[in-house]
Amino acid sequence: MFASFTSKLPWSHCNNPWNTPQCVDLTGAGPSSSGNGQNGSGMGVLNDTLNGTLSPLLEKVSSSQEYLERRVLRISGGLDEPGTVNWDLALCLLLGWIICYLCVWKGVKSTGRVVYFTATFPYVLLTIIMFRAVTLPGAAEGIKFYLNPNFTRLADGQVWLDAGTQVFFSYSIGLGTLIALGSYNKFKTNCYRDCIIFACVNSGTSLYGGFVIFSVLGFMALKQGVPVEKVAESGPGLAFVAYPAAVAEMPVAPLWSILFFFMVILLGLDSEFVGVEGFVTAIVDLFPQHLRRGHRKEIFIGVCSIFWFLLGLSMVTEGGMYVFQLFDFYSASGSALLWVSLFQSIAIGWIYGGERFYDNMASMIGFRINPWIRICWKYLTPLFCVVSSYNYSNHHKV
Length: 398
Description:
This protein is mostly helical.
């Protein structure tokens, strides 16, 4: 976002010191004559890692990808080459943790007030970007591609597995944040209604955001003269390569770039300090006699934030992207999340008792919810988690 405060976005062209002779600018003008001529041994490493593809060493690389790999990440050749800390990224990481601490240090009341902004303002930005995106040339083709899925892919078990784990992660299932934040509700709060609203808003936001993303991808496909599926990427490749590349071709590109990355920052902070609040709530509830005295809770949050910042430094080195992906693959999503959810559903459905939990909810909200939910607690959720974890492990065997 800081790099967007310029008249010409630095990833829109190849006339930068970090570009290689293989760089192709976003206008399709070809390699830059002013590239630094470095051998590009790390070129395409991030793209290969993200997408699981192995491209030839001398394949042409977009200027936006080179900007991410060679300027922002300064990515090394592998996990065994950690390199030095990228201090500009380290300072951004520090700023992020300072903001996060200030949002949560006074507890859930301050978190709640901040959420009113961080959770709603991205919708404003998303809507502004959407009105611009759908008016771009080629946007209709992108939306058409979005709304006409390839149903033959439903026969692929990996599609179901990826969708399931994404829903778990998107809804914060198994991460403890919903439980921690829900513990601050009044006893008679209608949590059943809140869960239904939460699910509808969450999935509705994903659907809404898809129109923005695929409108821009359709625009990119038209500019490059290729099908939409050729420019569609997933994960960091979409947020930090494909979308910035499209934004760079829009009129008043810096403005749209600033709005887009500001929205991404708000979404990241929103997820981060809610996750911190969930962890802090669990520990404080475990040791209330020690952490609820004086300013001990604020000090505890500060110590945790410092620890997590130091841990994050391993991800802003030249080999940091590889470390990040190890964390992401083994802890933030995938089978780990499925196993945690399995044990939680067993604890509720069988150890505490699904019928007992069902009666507890009825005494809280004043009516008995759909008994189908109780069947899910005891049978369907554990079965889904076991099958998905088994398939996940088999698919990702090395």
